Amino acid sequence: MADETVRKQNKKYGQELLHDPLLNKGTAFTDRERNEWGLHGLLPPRVTTIEDQVMRAMENYRAKPNDLEKYIFLDGLHDRNETLYYRLIIDHMEEMMPIVYTPTVGKACQEFGHLYRRGRGMFFSALDRGNIARFLRNWPADDVRVIVVTDGERILGLGDLGANGMGIPVGKLSLYSACAGIDPAKTLPITLDVGTNNRELLDDPLYLGIRRNRLRGDAYDDLVEEFVQAATARWPRVLIQFEDFANINSFRLLEKYRHRICAFNDDIQGTAAVALAGLYSALRITGGRLIDQRLLFLGAGGAGIGIGELIVSAMQVEGLSEDEARKRCWFVDSKGVVVKGRSDLQAHKLAFAHDMEPVSDFMTAIRELKPTGIIGVSGMPGSFNRETVQEMSRLNQRPMVFALSNPTSKAECTAEDAYRWSAGKAVFASGSPFAPVELEGKTLVPGQGNNAYIFPGLGLGVVVSQARHVTDEMFAAAARTLAFEVAESDLAMGRIYPSLARIREVSLEIAAAVARVAYDQGLAEAPEPEDIPARVREEMFEPVYKRLAL
Ligand code: NAD
Fold first, then answer.
1. Which portions of the chain are predicted below pLDDT 70?
2. 389 in a domain, yes or no?
3. The CATH number of the domain where 200 resides is what?
């Protein structure tokens, strides 16, 4: 079966074969393959194994002087040999995740126009209006199953990076393949370049996007609609993940498309699931039920409101009314606590606006609301300061302190600060990775509430079941499954997520749980297999060289 696939796909020969990253094996092409495919003379004589290649690549990788250079090295490898690229990442997941994704990918996006070497994925700009379907036919693969698309307006916590945002869909799709085994040949990163309002980029002679301010209003919506129609016409079974759109568009687009096509927004829904899973595991440390918590969010954007909504539905499953559940989630945005009296609230915040006198600062909000956990999704570094963490520790035996803003430079506080200021009492999670902290002879391991725990497995479940839509129940199932995968030994170290080294197993379980929901909800187009986990495993891409047969 695997050989068949390679045989059918491969029409390339000699030099051209070496330049196809999906087929290239470099020095690992066997003697027979070198004969059959015109490769003799084009490679050094010794035939090596993938293990030899991993050894060489790691030597090069570790010799790089900084993380951005490591990113550039991996990016180059991605362009040369995808099998080896994925072998390397999968074998060194904890070491490489921060390079392939946050925080290093943020730096790579900022430098995109300066680092650019070779195209990956597709760009459609505001100037391409009316031509997207035609241009989309330039993509060589006929079976694309997962698209990650951004318009670059809210890249991590770094703001509007315009066309430079392409690093994000590329990075996310690498994680789909590395963490859940989605076949890289079936993925497609896309950037909709609708302009940028970032003056620095517009003035940068090496910026690669169109030089205009952002498209807004109907013109913007029409471009997104044209893209969605073109993509789903060419690949009717494709899953579209909306990524790093600013919240002026993200909520609206999600509502518009989630019931029409197979789509989700990772910043809203994926984040929500990973945060909910973190809460479930944190409760195993702090004791108590989800419905007894009072949560205070700093930040009421896509991530915050998404988490709040999923918590509300999880609390309802545990017996609260919607109204009661909402009253356990409070939000502070840049103007203060989200309360009923405010006239400046955007639509997505209204359902969380409660009765309270206006309060403008976070510390007063903590004193008045007495939360059991604070969740930072504001992109404001340092906003969980000593005073707030100490107050949380005074109010709670084991306060939950989640500093989820990315990249690391935007985290509301560091792991070290949270542990020291709370004298080791805080149950801490962050969006970007932090190193373990030694405190009074104990090693505390901060959990990374990384969306990569959720979206790859969820995507795999959708691909396997060929779900028509992505539902809240799928995210809730993914969150429960993820929390279940956290071992007592993880919790003993304070870690509320499983080790990243186990991510493929975890993704398999999540994919099976999500596919189960798709079948139960009658949303699956694929016939139901007898053994869902076995079917999921069968679908997973493994980075091993397949024999190239004539
Ligand atoms: P967003 O732009 O939609 O929302 C940001 C929110 O923060 C807004 O409500 C804004 O009013 C609020 N804010 C800004 N300054 C503030 C201040 N000084 N005090 C209080 N509130 C303030 O962005 P988003 O998509 O919600 O993402 C927010 C952050 O969460 C980003 O840094 C992002 O990287 C991070 N994030 C993390 C994860 C994760 O860890 N798994 C996932 C998604 C997003």
1. 1-10, 550
2. no
3. 3.40.50.10380
